[in-house]
Amino acid sequence: MIRPFSIGPPARTRLALLLAASMWVGNATTGVPPLAAQTTAFPDTILYTPDSAPGGAWLLGPPALSLGEGSEAEEFSNVAAVIVLRDGRLVVVDGGSREVRIFDDQGHFLSRFGGKGDGFGEFPSLPWGAWVVADTLTVVDAARRAHIFTVDGTFIRSEAPLVSDRGTRMRRLGPLAPGVTLARYATPPILLKEPESIPYELVAVAGADVRPLLALPGYTLIPEPGGQPRGLVYGPRLDVATRPGGFCTTFPKEYVIECREPDGTPRLRIRRTGVATRKVTDGARETFFQGLARANPGDESYLEQMRRSVDFATDLPVIGRLVLSEQGDIWVGPYVIEDETLGTFNPSPPDPTEWDVYAYDGAWRGRIQLPARFRLMWAGRSAVAGVTRDSRDVEHVVIFPLRNAAPNGPSGS
What we know:
The chain is mostly beta strands.
């Protein structure tokens, strides 16, 4: 059962966030207008043309911290999240052990919690992502449950998967405010007669209350005779990134970023023109099938069937990933085909990737090249953090300092 609820004005400060969170719960209303009636227009689009230039070229310094070759606590596998806390401590959510590990700002191991199991504070399935809001850590697992801890490791509670009125489990995406989470509907099983574009529906969740926010252009499903429809490999897609105070989304086929307040009110729209599209090559198709083989070892008949039936897009999406910094900077990364392949959790791009960074107000602050085999998981004003894989495919948690990254414009915090 979905119950609509109302919230207060946009939240831009910590006090305002707390006030907004308190208004989400227990302030139910009736007769919420349909999505189209709730949506207002964006302010003027910030347009960048081929003649536009970023504020500067950013560089990465040598790693300030690298973990992965020391004690047993530094043995990582399927890292789901890397977060740098305000006091410099490092949070690593390790999927292989299903543990959360805490290190100090020098990389010294401090503590661990979680682990495999069904007990209080344990993870029954693979951790899938995590975020920190107001000294509270939320870890979401593959079964779409949420597990809540203090950042010191004290277990608070576990929350069951969010189930929509359609009977499908919703996916938690990240925080909007303390106690308020952005989630998306999962696509229910449907039978199609022809390819159909499926909208990407976002909702805000506070306790048992769920409020529809908006529906965006989503992805294409292809009819599958006698079975569940399948997606178009490397087809149009969008990404969503959140932080306390709002969220941003990309568009499936254009270089467009739209940012909204926690209640869905449009705040900022960025558009770049003249961005070249890339074709889906034979090499990209083979990369997909190689991942399929890793995920289904020895099942040759299935692999042969998939080679005959899989449909590929013609062009790759323009944007791959969004990452929002705690200060509100918007990191925009390219589409990497390895993200669409199976057999590797949170794959690292094999080649260097070029990212654009925009300020909270949309100013194009800079452009930076991140190294090959590095997956960005956290961004701050003076450093970035994530996971690298060495030639043996061993995972290392790394923090790189940023150079020529002076603050530019309002931070939104």
